[in-house]
Amino acid sequence: MADWKLGAVEAKFADLIWAGEPMPSAQLVRRAEEVLDWKKSTTYTVLKRLCQRGIFQNEGGVVTALLSREEFYARQSEEFVAQTFDGSLPAFLTAFTRRKKLSREEIAQLQKLIDQNRG
Hints:
Blueprint: H1 8-20, E1 23-24, H2 25-36, H3 40-52, E2 56-59, E3 62-65, H4 69-85, H5 89-99, H6 104-117
Antiparallel strand pairs: 1-3, 2-3
Helix pairs in contact: 1-2
């Protein structure tokens, strides 16, 4: 199973890429220095790690996403439910709503999702 977890700093770095891609790697180095106070070597080390995990690619000096931000976080959520709740979305929702009651708007949104995915 792929590792769909990002640490807090990795997530900020990934957001830099998603916000500006396609992006020349030199520009990414400058942005990471401005926003994260990273050195060039740190940027390339983390970028390489995220490329190896299949999230981004750095081809010809241009960094692009292999997965959109939404797709990445959808996969991360699926992995969390699979690992923590044996893949059971109802078990996750039960646990979630024990401590936080859903608003009427949230219930309506969930009902709409259920209706759209029925059948």
